[in-house]
């Protein structure tokens, strides 16, 4: 049986679901309609840190800093969306092209699902569906919908997964003046790390609730899944050569078949002329990828077509970013050099667990009804002997040195 996350299968599935939705709806509702639209971002990013690259997500190599004085790939993307709404049945296909870990801009399917409205309160979906994580999770790639140039990297970059291949159910209910939507999901997802390597999450299960009352929106989510990825296999094979103590280290830090959990809660208050919002989340991968708590608070004021804003965001490690590794005092001299090398490589991996905070200021200008220009400056401070969210660390990089990031973007929808 083909996997849901295989791209050719999803294209065929999406087309079939859209046609079947139209057929079912056409038989029941003559007012069904197709819609087509899209969105995009053109951005330029400069980083003052020249011994590493700034990136908005670990799935995008970024390349602003050490690789390029100005990078146009950090936030730039283009997407298109085809939708059908025909009464009880509806379907959507969204395709997005952005720079990825293989340094290509190959379009990928972001969403491909069909929905059946069982009752006015209950709906069911099947296919590739947006993960209900974080306040901006449903439109994190459509930057026009954001006030900022990008979602805060400390939180959103800690969990770059944005969709799920599976099923979900949403139920709308009220508690007095509070309107709620509760969503449960099950499925899995896959990330392409290189031409030959994949990272997969199996048995993804989660629940999310979004509550609104007046200008206030609150979303809380909990998701768990089993990670399957082959990272640093040679390192952990080396640890296992040292017997029981090496086996303990390998089991603690290897990434394959580990249970990962994500908990998050966020709130936004937006009465119209101004807004304030904040989120906090904990992402525990139970491996060298770390156990992190991240969050931010942001606010802005709308002055006609201009919206100045400010954000403070932070990510902290809940586990040490250094490990003792093998106990060298228990080893004979012939094995010390190899053990020291393994310990150093492990600590090199742990130093990439992001510990940093950022202060950002920016302004959005709604130049037209479907176009927004944004300018943002971030002052980023890595901490704890880590490189924060930086990528492509070069010889001579100084840990703990703060740096600035200047970003300009043009967001549009059509």
Keyword list:
single chain, 414 residues, mainly beta, Porin, 16-stranded antiparallel β-barrel, two-stranded antiparallel ribbon, 5 helices, 19 strands, globular
What's this model, at a glance?
The chain is mainly β and 414 residues long. The protein has five helices and 19 strands.
Report on the structure:
The strands form 2 sheets. A 16-stranded antiparallel β-barrel has the order 1-5-6-7-8-9-10-11-12-13-14-15-16-17-18-19. Strands 2-3 form a two-stranded antiparallel sheet. It has about 425 residues and is mainly beta. Helix 3 runs antiparallel to helix 4. The protein starts with 6 loop residues before the first helix and ends with a strand. About 15% of the residues lie in helices and about 50% in strands. It has a single domain (about 5-414), classed as Porin (Beta Barrel), CATH 2.40.160. It is globular, with a radius of gyration of 23 Å. A hairpin with a 4-residue loop joins strand 7 (about 110-115) and strand 8. The chain has helices spanning about 5-30, 155, 235-240, 245-255, 335-350, and strands spanning about 35-45, 55, 65, 70, 75-85, 90-100, 110-115, 120-130, 165-175, 180-190, 200-215, 215-230, 260-270, 275-285, 290-300, 305-315, 355-370, 370-380, 405-414.
Q: Count of DSSP E strands?
A: 19
Structural class given helices, strands, pairing? mainly beta
Helix content estimate: 10-25%
Which blocks of ≥5 consecutive residues have pLDDT under 50?
Answer: none
- Calculate the mean pLDDT score and round it: 91
By CATH, the topology is Porin
Shape: globular
Q: Which CATH architecture would you pick?
A: Beta Barrel
Rg (CA only): 23 Å
Distance between the termini: 37 Å
Determine the number of helices (DSSP H or I, runs of at least 4 residues): 5
